[in-house]
């Protein structure tokens, strides 16, 4: 382990982790090679065995290694896509290779990068059926608006977006989500990531404490890491985020998905919502409500937004058109509390230079003419059928226990449970190699004690394609010996 001395300023467990990881990536530790027993390696390096065990567990969780009961820990045959080396070696003017030098924040971001290189097909989570969008109708609206565009629609936006879209969203959000706001409070962004980045930059100082859900969306964590805040993951149960009995440090921001927790699917209870509102008011902080797919609830009444629960609630409400229309549209919106409107709109103009006003105006007409709600109704029926088909497929071949207990009958994905001994990262990588796209549940956790499972999207997968893709996925799970006897398939998938 000569590489242990290459980063003397790092903590011991991080130095050991990097040394083993780099040795795997550059081939020094070839696939199927057995790693030393944790006790032997600890004695050889003069470390505690707990340090070595922590590193082995992290490598196992990320798919670099796999364990075989009674035999030891071995280098995986393949590593996850996100672990491929991104440090290219450009050729300098003298012909020598020059190492890529990134900031510490940049290096950290790449270490935690989780965006999939493939974004379409069975069973990619969080992607709507983009083929079902009424493209012809929307194109006609765009063409009509683009014939004689005003200069105001062809220059930079300094009002937080198209006034037409801001007004259209006020009416839609009031009826559909019980959100209380005026057009001036709405800021149009290029998706949720930009909205979170803006909020974190403007409301947090370095090392401010921020609460997030555990598990939670990896994209939020990455944006927050780049803004140098202290992230505190809080567990999620059937009633949503569980605030600590004694909060300790006051959180500056509290990020939640109350209407449909991502990724587990629970719905935040009224008591939990009221408690979070009280904590935010007392601490002088803000709740950031991510309402990413609230439109797709397939039974019962819609869950009202947290933002509308109290007048002047300390809630920054974030929504997106990526799930209801299509992701490449890159349009989202923020409903800002009145005290934040001026500052955050000015900051948005300075940092991001808003635009896309023609397409925003077209979308405003699309909403005002009733096409948006009609499209959502059609998609809700379509996705409900696909969800039921996938649910039946899983229950038929793996039993009801293979489905998550947090079943709120909403959203665009299901969770397939796996035993704690399973390597869901390795299963997802093996499935991806065979053209089946799932995401490992363990990657949505920050802390080491996490559940194993697979996120399976159904929105963009026609029923006639599900069975064949599920057969391939099941084969990958069985090859990794991830199913105990009670979850073994009882018959072949048709």
Automatic annotation (TrEMBL):
Every HTH gntR-type domain range: 10-78
Q: What Pfam family is a match for this entry?
A: Aminotran_1_2
One GO molecular function term? L-aspartate:2-oxoglutarate aminotransferase activity
SUPFAM superfamilies with a match to the protein in the record: PLP-dependent transferases, Winged helix' DNA-binding domain
Which keywords does this Swiss-Prot/TrEMBL entry list? Answer: Aminotransferase, DNA-binding, Pyridoxal phosphate, Transcription, Transcription regulation, Transferase
Q: Give the E.C. number(s).
A: 2.6.1.1
Name the source's superkingdom: Bacteria
Q: Which InterPro entries match?
A: Aminotransferase_I/II_large, HTH_trans_reg/aminotransferase, PyrdxlP-dep_Trfase, PyrdxlP-dep_Trfase_major, Tscrpt_reg_HTH_GntR, WH-like_DNA-bd_sf, WH_DNA-bd_sf
The similarity annotation says: In the C-terminal section; belongs to the class-I pyridoxal-phosphate-dependent aminotransferase family.
**The name this protein goes by in its record:** Transcriptional regulator, GntR family
Q: Which organism is it from?
A: Serratia odorifera DSM 4582
Q: What is the phylogenetic placement of the source species in the record?
A: Bacteria, Pseudomonadati, Pseudomonadota, Gammaproteobacteria, Enterobacterales
């Amino acid at each position: 382990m000569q590489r242990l001395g290459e980063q003397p300023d790092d903590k011991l467990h991080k130095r050991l982790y990097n040394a083993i990881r780099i040795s795997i990536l550059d081939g020094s530790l070839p696939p199927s090679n057995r790693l030393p027993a944790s006790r032997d390696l600890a004695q050889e390096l003069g470390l505690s065995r707990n340090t070595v065990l922590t590193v082995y567990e992290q490598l196992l969780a990320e798919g670099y290694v796999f364990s075989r009961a009674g035999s030891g820990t071995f280098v995986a045959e393949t590593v996850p896509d996100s672990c491929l080396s991104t440090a290219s070696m450009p050729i300098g003017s003298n012909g020598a290779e020059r190492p890529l030098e990134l900031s510490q924040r940049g290096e950290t971001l790449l270490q935690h990068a989780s965006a999939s290189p493939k974004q379409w097909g069975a069973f990619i989570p969080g992607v709507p059926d983009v083929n079902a969008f009424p493209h012809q109708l929307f194109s006609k609206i765009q063409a009509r608006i683009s014939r004689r565009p005003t200069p105001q629609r062809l220059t930079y936006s300094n009002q937080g977006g198209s006034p037409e879209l801001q007004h259209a969203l006020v009416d839609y959000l009031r009826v559909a989500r019980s959100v209380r706001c005026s057009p001036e409070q709405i800021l149009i962004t290029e998706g949720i990531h930009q909205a979170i980045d803006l909020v974190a930059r403007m409301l947090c100082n370095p090392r401010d404490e921020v609460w997030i859900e555990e598990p939670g969306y990896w994209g939020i964590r990455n944006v927050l890491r780049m803004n140098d805040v202290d992230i505190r993951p809080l567990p999620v149960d059937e009633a949503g985020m569980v605030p600590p009995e004694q909060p300790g440090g006051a959180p500056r921001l509290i990020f939640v998905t109350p209407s449909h927790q991502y990724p587990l699917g629970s719905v935040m209870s009224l008591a939990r919502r009221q408690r979070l509102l009280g904590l935010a008011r007392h601490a002088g902080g803000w709740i950031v409500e991510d309402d990413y797919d609230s439109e797709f609830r397939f039974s019962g009444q819609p869950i009202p937004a947290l933002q509308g629960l109290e007048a002047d609630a300390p809630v920054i409400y974030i929504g997106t058109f990526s799930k209801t229309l299509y992701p490449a549209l890159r349009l989202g919106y923020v409903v800002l509390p009145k005290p934040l409107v001026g500052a955050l709109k000015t900051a948005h103009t300075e940092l991001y230079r808003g635009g896309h006003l023609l397409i925003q105006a077209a979308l405003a007409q699309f909403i005002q003419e009733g096409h948006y709600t009609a499209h959502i109704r059609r998609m809700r029926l379509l996705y409900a059928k696909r969800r039921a088909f996938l649910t039946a497929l899983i229950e038929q071949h793996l039993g009801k226990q293979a489905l998550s207990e947090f079943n709120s009958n909403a959203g665009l994905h299901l969770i397939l449970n796996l035993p704690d001994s399973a390597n869901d990262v390795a299963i997802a990588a093996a499935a991806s190699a065979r053209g089946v796209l799932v995401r490992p549940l363990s990657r949505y956790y920050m802390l080491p004690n996490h559940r194993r499972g697979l996120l399976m999207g159904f929105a963009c997968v026609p029923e006639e394609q599900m069975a064949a893709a599920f057969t391939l996925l099941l084969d990958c799970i069985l090859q990794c010996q991830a199913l105990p006897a009670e979850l073994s398939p009882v018959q072949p998938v048709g």
